[in-house]
Write a structure and sequence with these properties.
Layout lengths: L1 H69 L8 H8 L3 H11 L2
Length: 102
């Protein structure tokens, strides 16, 4: 019974605050909810962006490893051969070769 009485008192106090301050309380609560939603969305976007960057870095490293494997046997490769083997643009192939120091 004490628990039910406490809830009733809390509900009564909430109603009194709403009656006295009405729209100000509602606006304040909406503002707090809005800020929390923005913070949550920002966090989710950061996680999403971070995972995409990680995927891109991993793919780049795999492509550079493939280039190294293609060069085995002291073979010379053209930009076109690298592009076809990796399925990347001409500029990406050049960038990979620059990073590999080839």
């Amino acid at each position: 019974m004490v628990y039910i009485a406490s809830i009733s008192r809390i509900k009564g106090n909430i109603y009194l605050v709403l009656l006295k301050y009405g729209s100000s309380v509602v606006v304040l609560l909406l503002g707090v909810v809005f800020i929390l939603v923005i913070l949550l969305l920002t966090l989710k976007f950061q996680q999403f962006a971070s995972s995409k960057v990680d995927e891109a870095v991993e793919k780049k490293e795999l492509n550079k490893q493939k280039i190294v494997e293609l060069f085995e046997g002291d073979r010379e490769l053209t930009n076109e051969e690298i592009r076809k083997a990796l399925g990347v643009s001409e500029r990406s192939a050049v960038r990979y070769m620059d990073e590999l120091g080839a």
